[in-house]
């Protein structure tokens, strides 16, 4: 949970600083929001060892997309104040939607150490992706 919260905080911070080279703040934010939703769906889908094993490459792929979003966000200038406020509001909406599902999945998985053992390497260091 702490890792996902840190990711959202960092995403919130860098989404406020995007816009250029074909990218816009809205596009990078949209991609990051989609990645967070995808990560939530992946974690929610894990119910047994087979689904945990299948989730690992999916987690790796989403993490690669998150790192790409972070790279893109650093490459574009900060948006105007109105756009920044719109993005901040949108990030809060994403947090309200995604965080409860992620928290529920993480709690459920934490109670199943055999599944967490499979997932842990894929999740390790996620806070560094942004």
Write up what this structure looks like.
With 130 residues, this protein is mainly α. It has one domain (2-12, 21-128). The chain is 78% helix and 3% strand. Helix 1 packs antiparallel against helix 4 (81-110), helix 2 (25-45) packs antiparallel against helix 3 (49-74) and helix 3 packs parallel to helix 5 (113-123). The two termini are 16 Å apart.
Short note summarizing the structure:
With 130 residues, the chain is mainly alpha-helical.
Instruction: Say what oligomer this is.
Output: single chain
Share of helix, binned: over 70%
- Bulk shape: elongated
**Number of beta strands:** 2
Average pLDDT value?
84
Order of helices and strands: HEEHHHH
Strand order of the largest sheet: 1-2
Number of domain modules: 1
- Which stretches are poorly predicted, pLDDT < 50 over at least 5 residues? 1-20
Write the layout of secondary structure elements.
Layout: H1 2-15, E1 19-20, E2 23-24, H2 25-45, H3 49-74, H4 81-110, H5 113-123
Antiparallel strand pairs: 1-2
Essential attributes:
single chain, 130 residues, mainly alpha, 5 helices, 2 strands, elongated
